[in-house]
């Protein structure tokens, strides 16, 4: 049985949430099975593909989320007047090391980068892109770092498997 009358409530749930909502959670709320929720999501995505629509539904961070279409970002920037919060090159480099090598300690990051990363780690934690993931079971018990769901949302990744593959060989001078 298909539940087309639940398409509008599903859209409202995604809109109100603001954050990605897992299919299982949507199925529980709507009291239908996951397959029907996924079919409704596909229909909503199809509906929103029309050029006269400003929103879309994306799969990100293990769930589905309503967001604005990228082509409307210039209009939204004018509305919000939000300052651009770009990451510096050292922050991006550190974040990529953590993403690919997690969980990883500060010392391991510094060994790879060749510079201290205290300040960069602090900024990445403040922006909720990384978090403490426990302590490594070695002398000194250093903090382990890993990426967060906010990292997945910011980079439009459903999960860490969406990260690009690293080259098999690393070339050096």
Walk me through the structure.
The structure is a single chain. It is elongated, with a radius of gyration of 20 Å. It has helices at residues 7-17, 23-30, 34-48, 73-80, 89-101, 106-113, 118-126, 149-154, and strands spanning 55-60, 63-68, 104-105, 130-135, 143-147. The chain has two domains: 4-78, Orthogonal Bundle (Arc Repressor Mutant, subunit A); 89-162, Winged helix-like DNA-binding domain superfamily/Winged helix DNA-binding domain (Arc Repressor Mutant, subunit A). By secondary structure, the protein is an alpha+beta fold. The strands form two sheets. The protein has a three-stranded antiparallel sheet. A two-stranded antiparallel ribbon has the order 1-2. β4 and β5 form a beta hairpin.
Number of strands: 5
Order of helices and strands: HHHEEHHEHHEEH
Strand order of the largest sheet: 3-5-4
How much of the sequence lies in strands comes to 5-15%
The largest sheet, given as strand count, sense and whether it forms a barrel, is: 3 strands, antiparallel
Mean pLDDT level: 87
Kindly give the count of domains.
2
Report helical residue fraction: 40-55%
State Rg: 20 Å
What's the CATH C level of the largest domain? Mainly Alpha
CATH topology of the largest domain: Arc Repressor Mutant, subunit A
Ranges with pLDDT <50 over ≥5 residues? none
- 3D shape: elongated
CATH superfamily of the largest domain: Winged helix-like DNA-binding domain superfamily/Winged helix DNA-binding domain
**CATH architecture tag of the largest domain:** Orthogonal Bundle
Helix/strand class: alpha+beta
End-to-end distance: 63 Å
Structure annotation, total helices: 8
